[in-house]
């Protein structure tokens, strides 16, 4: 192999991309917490989501 | 019994100008010899060494290889018998280089040239190169093609030792150099005679080793006309390697699509009516039901092992936005994944034509979700300013889809661009070297147009 460092670099890229693809990682902000599932089901409006009201866009061009 | 090697003997005479000792090393081959003491050019064919030319050198130049030094090049012992400094003047700037005449009684003459630490091992050739005259001339000799590099008028500015030709300080020749690294084809044209020679770029360390010179060879400065590019083989092969790895990357991308088992575990249509009312429209013909602005979906199963979950939102938004707050809640453990997503889509037309902005669809991927029974808590939110329009019946319809095991192939895109970096850097390194080489030529740069600059080596 003429370019062993390049081969290593390429393998890391392919492996990394495949792993991220497989795991489905995304840049979306997801916050993991714990709640009482029954109370949310009974009264969904009472739950206070972290990402509520994060809209930032209010018009087109 | 092997015969003893013939050791050439030198002959010493007296300079008729200054009385200093003049050493003759080239036997009957030498036509001129230069007195090392007074730099007078003497006729080597006359027994008394008659003076042909006297010149006052402003300073005595010491050759890097002392006169009389012997060195082995190509398995042959050569003796340094003559030294000269030559120059060309380009745009008022003199470029000087040195030439060392080597001699072996059985193998004849050979030359070494040196410019800014770059050395060439030169021999004259008998065959006549085929020169193609064009905007950029080329020459072919010995099956090798050479590109024209530079033409100039070279002047001899200093001589020392002896020469097989009538050497004079101030004599000039028209030179043309053609390059095909590591070789350089050169012609020297005088009245009625053209001499062709081929030089091979030789590292200074090789010369130092051959002549057993003390210290180290001066480090070369800049890029010389026939200096081999240290990277050319790398570029082609690294691009070949890139194509191979890019193909493997594509294969991995396709393979991931095959290996990955994406399963839709939940899907339902909803309508955001107005004033905090969402209407759920089941896919399978169930009855429509109304929910609060914040509502929960039916429970769905995530089976198998820990995997990623993708929540897709597909809307019919037009010049509007909606924000969704989600909570994916495990009904048994209470583990909650809290996330949000904004969807907006605008379109219109202005003086530049029609335009669109945003997308009616969006998705969020939650990595590493353990199996279990889950439901989504959904809280859609829209702009109150559009409430009146929605009241007329054009409320937002949207579909929520939950997929298990969905991948994220987007990472292959940056990986592809990152894979491009090494071959691009390698190509840029080669181009920089070649541009530096050709900037000293008559052509300015490898890709440029004609301009005069730089020096020559013989």
Q: Could you please describe the fold and organization of this structure?
A:
Chain A is mainly alpha-helical and 61 residues long. In chain A, 43% of the residues lie in helices and 8% in strands. Chain A has helices at 4-23, 37-42; one strand at residues 30-34. Chain B is built from 4 helices and 28 strands. Chain B has 458 residues and is mainly β. Chain B has 3 domains: 11-225, no CATH class; 233-256 and 411-438, no CATH class; 261-406, Jelly Rolls (Sandwich), CATH 2.60.120.380. In chain B, helix 2 packs antiparallel against helix 4. Chain B is rod-shaped, with a radius of gyration of 41 Å. In chain B, the strands form 4 sheets. Chain B has an 8-stranded antiparallel β-barrel. Chain B has a 6-stranded antiparallel sheet with strand order 19-18-17-28-22-26. In chain B, strands 20, 21, 23, 24, 25 and 27 form a 6-stranded antiparallel sheet that branches. At the A-B interface, helix 1, strand 1 and helix 2 of A face helix 2, strand 20, strand 22, strand 23 and strand 24 of B. Strand 1 of chain A pairs antiparallel with strand 24 of chain B, so a sheet runs across the interface.
Layout: helices, strands, pairs:
The complex is a heterodimer of chains A (61) and B (458).
Chain A: H1 4-23, E1 30-34, H2 37-42
Chain B: E1 11-14, E2 21-24, E3 32-34, E4 41-43, E5 51-53, E6 70-73, E7 76-90, E8 93-104, E9 108-115, E10 118-124, E11 130-132, E12 138-141, E13 144-163, E14 172-180, E15 183-190, E16 193-202, H1 204-210, H2 232-259, E17 263-274, E18 277-281, E19 289-292, E20 295-296, E21 300-302, E22 307-315, E23 320-330, E24 335-350, E25 353-359, E26 361-369, E27 372-382, H3 387-391, E28 396-404, H4 412-438
Antiparallel strand pairs in B: 1-2, 3-4, 3-13, 4-5, 6-7, 7-8, 7-13, 8-9, 9-10, 10-16, 11-12, 12-13, 13-14, 14-15, 15-16, 17-18, 17-28, 18-19, 20-27, 21-27, 22-26, 22-28, 23-24, 23-27, 24-25
Helix pairs in contact in B: 2-4
């Amino acid at each position: 192999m003429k370019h062993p460092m390049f081969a290593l670099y390429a393998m890391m890229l392919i492996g990394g991309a495949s792993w991220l693809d497989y795991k489905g990682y995304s840049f979306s902000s997801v916050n993991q917490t714990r709640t009482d599932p029954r109370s949310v089901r009974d009264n969904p409006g009472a739950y206070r989501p972290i990402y509520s009201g994060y809209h930032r866009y209010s018009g087109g061009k | 019994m092997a015969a003893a090697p013939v050791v050439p003997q030198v002959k010493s005479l007296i300079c008729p100008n200054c009385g200093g000792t003049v050493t003759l090393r080239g036997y009957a081959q030498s036509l001129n010899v230069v007195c090392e003491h007074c730099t007078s050019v003497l006729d080597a064919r006359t027994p008394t060494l008659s003076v042909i030319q006297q010149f006052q050198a402003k300073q005595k130049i010491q050759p890097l290889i002392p006169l009389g030094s012997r060195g082995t090049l190509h398995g042959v012992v050569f003796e340094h018998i003559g030294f000269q400094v030559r120059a060309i003047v380009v745009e008022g700037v003199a470029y000087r280089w040195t030439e060392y005449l080597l001699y072996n009684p059985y193998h004849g003459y050979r030359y070494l040239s040196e410019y800014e630490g770059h050395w060439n091992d030169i021999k004259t050739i008998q065959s006549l190169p085929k020169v193609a005259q064009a905007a950029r001339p080329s020459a072919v000799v010995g099956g090798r093609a050479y590109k024209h590099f530079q033409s100039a008028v070279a002047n001899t500015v200093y001589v020392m030792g002896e020469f097989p030709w009538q050497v004079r300080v101030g004599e000039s020749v028209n030179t043309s150099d053609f390059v095909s690294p590591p070789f350089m084809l050169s012609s020297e044209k005088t009245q009625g005679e053209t001499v062709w020679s081929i030089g091979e770029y030789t590292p200074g360390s090789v010369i130092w080793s051959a002549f057993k010179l003390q210290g180290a060879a001066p480090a070369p400065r800049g890029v010389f006309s026939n200096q081999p590019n240290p990277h050319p083989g790398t570029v082609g092969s690294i691009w070949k390697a890139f194509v191979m790895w890019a193909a493997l990357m594509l294969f991995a991308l396709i393979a991931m699509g095959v290996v990955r088992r994406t399963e839709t575990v939940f899907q339902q249509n909803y309508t955001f009516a107005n004033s905090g009312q969402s209407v759920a429209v089941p896919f399978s013909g169930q009855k429509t039901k109304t929910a609060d602005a914040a509502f929960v979906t039916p429970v769905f199963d995530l089976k198998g092992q820990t995997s990623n979950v993708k929540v897709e939102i597909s809307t019919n938004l037009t010049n509007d936005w909606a924000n969704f707050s989600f909570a994916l809640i495990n009904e048994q453990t209470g583990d909650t994944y809290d996330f949000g997503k904004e969807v907006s889509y605008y379109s219109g037309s202005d003086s530049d034509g029609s335009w669109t902005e945003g997308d009616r669809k969006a998705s969020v991927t939650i990595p590493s979700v353990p199996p279990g029974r889950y439901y989504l808590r959904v809280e859609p939110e829209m702009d109150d300013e559009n409430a009146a329009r929605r009241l007329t019946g054009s409320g937002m319809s949207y579909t929520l889809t939950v997929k298990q095991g969905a991948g994220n192939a987007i990472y292959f895109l940056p990986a592809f661009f990152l894979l491009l970096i090494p071959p691009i850097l390698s190509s840029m390194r080669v181009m920089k070297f070649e541009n530096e080489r050709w900037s000293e030529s008559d052509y300015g740069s490898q890709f440029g147009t004609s301009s005069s600059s730089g020096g020559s080596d013989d």
